UniProtKB/TrEMBL annotation:
Alphabetized Pfam families for the sequence: Biotin_carb_C, Biotin_carb_N, CPSase_L_D2
EC code: 6.3.4.14
Lineage: Bacteria, Bacillati, Bacillota, Bacilli, Bacillales
Protein's name according to its UniProt entry: Biotin carboxylase
Functional summary from the UniProt entry: This protein is a component of the acetyl coenzyme A carboxylase complex; first, biotin carboxylase catalyzes the carboxylation of the carrier protein and then the transcarboxylase transfers the carboxyl group to form malonyl-CoA.
Organism: Neobacillus citreus
MF term (GO), any: biotin carboxylase activity
Amino acid sequence: MNRVLVANRGEIAVRIIRACKELGIETIAVYSDADQDGLHVHLADKSVSIGPAPSRKSYLNIEKLISVAIEERIDAIHPGYGFLAENDEFSDACARNHICFIGPSGDIIRKMGNKIQARKAAVEAGVPVVPGTNEKNSDVEEFARAAHEIGYPVLLKAAAAGGGRGMKVVFDERELRNFYQQTQAEAAAAFGDGTVYIEKYIQNARHVEVQVLFDHYGNGIHLGERDCSIQRRHQKLIEEAPSPVLDSKMREEMHAAALALAKSQNYTSAGTIEFVVDADSRKFYFIEMNTRVQVEHPVTEMLTGIDIVKEQLRIAEGHKLSIEQRDVQFMGHAIECRINAEDPFRGFMPMPGKIEHLHLPGGTGVRVDSHCYAGYSIPLYYDSLLGKLIVHGQDREEAIVRMLRALGEIDLKGIRTTVPFHERVLGNPDFRSGKYNTRWVEESFLHELNKPVEV
Ligand code: ADP
Ligand code: ADP
Ligand code: MG
């Protein structure tokens, strides 16, 4: 592999370019009209303009990306996360044009991208799934019967959903009947597929996921779990590993379940198997698989010392996994804060604009993955992630203190960010004691955020 096209922008494009450089691989960046000043454009060996700012016309334009790939004689495309990373047609288009897609085949993406199909695959692999429906139900009466059997509250979930959207919690049959059609219509509009199914809504839930790596020779390993229960609107804000809620038996079972599911699909590349843990019954259930590198992958890299993006590149090149399960060591504790250009005091309103001044933290155990620099203007077209601050410590307490220290070093002027949100979560006694669930931010924390405090 000599030349890789990075079909993404922002921090993940920068992350991939960095890995390629270290492996001696040339990189081609692509950019929209809104991203001419993007850091990925500066860092890549070459960059190519791919069209207007709206993603549909640039970062999601399969035809354009393939034609750039052919013209530039690249060997492989890395899709990053978001955009085309879980688009089966893109993976297929690469294959048709003899371009290596750094990720699994279109068939696997298709299957795992549909949450109903993925549930079926999990059941077949002997992995527990959340009680729910495994067939697409077209009739509200069937839904009502199923929900009655499962017990309320239930989630109406779009099979093709992603990014925390396409989900509606309903607490009784009246709500189910009210929201049934609306959820279908919204899913059809947002994801091009109106298929909806039902899952029991776990009220005291933790989100715990397992990172896996599989090569093309049937070898697979897990790199442990990440706890991503600090969420707002079903979107992750803080992730950590190891998970404070797993005991060693549950941890082992969850890792084994993740490997069993990936193996049953002949999975290749890096992937993540997501579970919800019912903190009351202490059972875990599969919810979905992400067939790509994830935003929070650095947490695992800090814990294991394994470079997940380099492994993806090596696997795509046809190499066997460079590590065996017994070589994977988990050291200490790692935490990641997603720093967004949003105002946490005004309902997380997006805050595009110009970064007038920027100083980023450093020191022992601190990693920053960001595309931001002083003078950079954040375009309003894309998601608001400015970067990720990741820390590693000998234990959870040291990691928390280190994160607070590093957050305090961030000096960013010009726009509002979610840094104050993170500082207050990390300082909160519930977080400190590990006692939180996926609803904690919205139900127990946000009202506190809006109280005035001495800074
Ligand atoms: P997405 O594709 O949007 O990531 P997921 O199925 O991974 O969708 O769900 C996103 C989040 O929604 C989870 O992290 C969790 O917080 C919540 N969630 C999903 N399914 C359930 C469930 N059955 N019970 C409770 N919470 C759930
Ligand atoms: P991860 O666990 O990797 O963060 P998420 O399920 O939170 O995955 O989000 C999946 C990807 O989808 C993210 O990488 C993000 O960039 C992208 N994404 C999140 N929200 C949206 C959205 N509203 N529309 C399109 N893409 C989104
Ligand atoms: Mg998910």
